[in-house]
Amino acid sequence: MLSTLVLILEYIRIAVIVVFLIIILSIIVFLTRTNWLKYAFLERFIEFFGRRPYHQQKFLKKWENIMKRLGRESEEEYKLAIIEADEILEKILDQMKFEGETTRERLTKVPKLILDNLEEVKKAHETRDNIVHDPDYRIEKEEAERVLKVYEKALKQLDV
Questions:
Q1: How far is the CA of 62 from the CAs of 21, 75, 86, 95, 135, in angstroms?
Q2: Is 136 exposed, middle or buried (0-12, 13-18, 19+ CB in 10 A)?
Q3: Phi, psi (5° rounding) for residue 90?
Q4: pLDDT given for residue 52 in this prediction
Q5: pLDDT of 56 over the 80 cut
Q6: What whole-number distance in Å separates Cα of residue 99 and Cα of residue 102?
């Protein structure tokens, strides 16, 4: 009877070890196949040794691409530049936890103390909406530059 109990306990011990190894292997696979490790470690490492926070570097690269679009002398590129600038603003407002499903709704929640050009940003977003919803909407380079300057000022005020 005692030897049977010892044998059962030995089997349980082996089963627990196997389950433990499976869990450890699953964790290793998870860490290597997902971006979690990148976000948990690399971003903090880059922020510690970098001059700017990681998300700022990412948005600065996107902003450089937007400004390159403006230099291409094409109305389609101007439109895409405005749409991409609005997407950056939307992501920033979402990260700052302003409630709302759309950028328009989030902008209504932003206090004037945070964005002193809030009305201009709302007009710039309206221009973006016109571009997206009206395929015949025309925009000149000067208008695109003005709209992008509004977005740039807003992003700077949001510390991006």
A1: 43, 19, 11, 16, 24
A2: exposed
A3: -60, -45
A4: 60
A5: no
A6: 9
